[in-house]
Amino acid sequence: MSKPLTPLPGSSRMPNSRLFSTRRRQPRPNSQALPSRILHAVLMGCFVSLVVWLALAPLSLAFADIVIQGAGLLDLPAMLQQEPLNMGGNVVLTRFGLADEPMAVSSSDLMLHVLGIAVLLIAGSRLRRVPVRHAVFAVCALHLLGTGVAWLQGDAFPHNMLTHTRLVADTNLLWLALSPIMLTLGFYVVERSWVNRVLATALFIGWQIVALPLKVLLSAVLIQALTPAVIPLLFVATGPMLDVLLMAALYAWCMTWPLLQLDERGRLATRPDLQVSPPK
Questions:
Q1: Please, are residues 238 and 160 in contact by the beta-carbon 8 Å criterion?
Q2: Which intervals of the chain are annotated as region Disordered (predicted)?
Q3: SS3 for 91?
């Protein structure tokens, strides 16, 4: 006679098996329903938008002061040009940029740029990691394009320090103004913890406030040290593409945070209604 079959681990005949056991979460009595989260997201988004938009005018003036002081510390031969934007008789914000003396793009400088691109291409072709190698090739192609345009147009090259630094400042101010709306439509609705929302808002807004004068000064230093032919490459490196990538990275990082709350002593603690129970 054949021997009886032994039930496999994890089958329905072995109810005590832990092979395929799942981690069960405890009930969430404090978790918000979706309509409530949407309402809270809209209220918080309106409050943050009001604060940021009212602070745009003084912030733009503060950015301009920081930029001109930084240019003085770096010995940049540039002047600050400001252009206030009025709406209804009130100054909404102040556009600014660093202007220097017109720089002619000489043939010798362009040849040095082409030589540098060739060296970078040779070095990049030896890289083993394909994403890094493709990134190096993209940088070389963009810089080669800017160098070619500068060589064709000569003294009529359309970009200079003023246009680039003003464009960088304008795009950063625009991102700063639109950040509360983007947070309202995305992060505030998904996130359930008020503490996480406040911390993420401070992180998003704080990064843009710190990065704006740094990017303007870095662009001015590189343009002054090199030639205006690097402006197309600098716009990619310090322009909206960098802001989009960093916003996506910060959003992904904030979504990995544990849900936090303030305890009775005012310290940060993990919400107890989301603790994972051990498998049984």
A1: no
A2: 1-31
A3: strand
Strands annotated E in the chain: 79-87, 90-99, 260-262, 268-270
Query: What DSSP state is assigned to residue 23?
Result: P
Contact assessment for residue 117 and residue 144, using Cβ atoms and an 8 Å cutoff: yes
Q: Tell me if the pTM is above 0.85.
A: no
Taking the CB of residue 91, how many other CB atoms lie within 10 A of it?
A: 14
Model pLDDT for residues 184-219, shown as the tens digit of each residue: 988 888 877 888 888 999 999 999 999 999 999 998
What one-letter code names the amino acid at 96?
Answer: F
CA atoms within 13 A on the CB side of 48: 26
Phi, psi of 270 (to 5 degrees): -75, 140
b vs e for 159-172, b when ≥16 Cβ sit within 10 Å of the residue's Cβ?
A: bbbbebbbbbbebb
CB 103 within 8 A of CB 225: no
Six-digit token string for 67 = 């930029």
Which tops the pLDDT comparison, 42 or 103? 42
- Tell me the CA end-to-end span of the chain in Å, nearest whole number: 38
Token digits of residue 161: 């320090």
